[in-house]
Amino acid sequence: MAKTMKRLLPCLREKKRYLVFKVLSNTKMPIIDVLREIKNEIVSYFGQKGLADAGVQILKETYDIEKQSGIIRVGNKYVNQLKTALMLITMINEKPVLIKSITVSGIIDKAKKQMINL
Fold first, then answer.
1. Which of 60, 61, 78, 115 is the most exposed place for a label (fewest CB within 10 A)?
2. How many CA atoms lie within 13 A of 62 on its CB side?
3. 7-16: Cβ within 8 A, 24+ apart
4. Is the pLDDT of residue 39 over 90?
5. Which residues pair with 69 in a beta bridge?
6. pTM of the model
7. How far apart are CA 21 and CA 83, in angstroms?
8. Class in CATH terms, 15-116
């Protein structure tokens, strides 16, 4: 008889938050360049260990090229640090940009609704 591991209690699980962001730029930025720059800035701000602790995930399937917006998943204790890291991004492909955080939600469906309303 194989023993299975018990699940963590809900109070012990890491809580997630979904941050909706918008890229403000004069030109449309390709998804690959935006995601690469966001990841590089997060790694330089958090470091490798901080990135692992924060559980940052850029949800590629949610990025909308027309609205230049997307969703990033992060642990609830690291939301403010993520906002700071996004603020530090000023250039993508030698073009000036500003990444604005729109809202933070605990449920991905609410975050997607906010993206639709942009």
1. 61
2. 22
3. 14/55, 14/75, 14/76, 15/75, 15/76, 15/106, 16/55, 16/73, 16/74, 16/75, 16/76, 16/106
4. no
5. 22, 64
6. 0.85
7. 9
8. alpha beta
Q: How is residue 30 written in tokens? A: 């390709």
CA distances from 55 to 14, 30, 58, 64, 113 (A): 9, 24, 10, 22, 23
Compute the chain's Rg from CA coordinates: 16
Cα distance between residue 73 and residue 61, in whole Å: 12
Q: Quick one: average pLDDT of 84-105?
A: 92
Name every residue whose Cβ is closer than 8 Å to that of residue 84 and which is 6 or more positions away in sequence. 45
Which residue matches tokens 């701000």?
A: 45
Six token digits for residue 16: 């997630």
Indicate the residue type of 67.
K
| DSSP bridge partners of 71 | 20, 59
Residue given tokens 């955080």 in the structure block: 101
Tokens 């109070």 sit at which residue?
Answer: 11
